[in-house]
Input
Amino acid sequence: MTRGVDQRTFRDAMAAVASPVAVVTAMDGERPHGSTVSAFASLSLTPPMVLVSLDKRSQLLAIVRRIGLFGLNVLGAHQVNLATAFARTSTEKFRGVHWFPSEGLPRLPGSAAWIACRLADTVDAGDHIVLLAHAVVSEAGSVQPLTYHRRSFGTHRPFL
Output
């Protein structure tokens, strides 16, 4: 197949896929940085690894490449406000946001999961860079995860 897909059609097709929502965080000296992502996944159990996709123009990407560490805060269903706040373009995303350091990285309390990651490699992927990282610390929370589907936030509910 050599046909191309236009961006709108592709975006609409991807909107049909429910994806988890996370905030990737890193420290730039004493200053926390973060961005909302929905392109992340478990990559390997042996060794424990994840993959995360960040826009090539992202300030966060430059920081992660420089320091080699990032936090993956998998958001809970009650954290829609954080998903929205960290999705915008701003240098003040952490203003008014409660966080604490964990493994030297910004951690958002109340998340569905927390993974501290050490960068292993990067892969050029169109307008994004895929980060391949080792999980240094991981912890599961007890809240329902936040998901993004058909351009709106929701959560997973198991079948009874």
Summary: The chain is about 15% helix and 50% strand. The helical segments are 7-15, 59-67, 80-87. The radius of gyration is 16 Å. The longest helix spans residues 7-15.
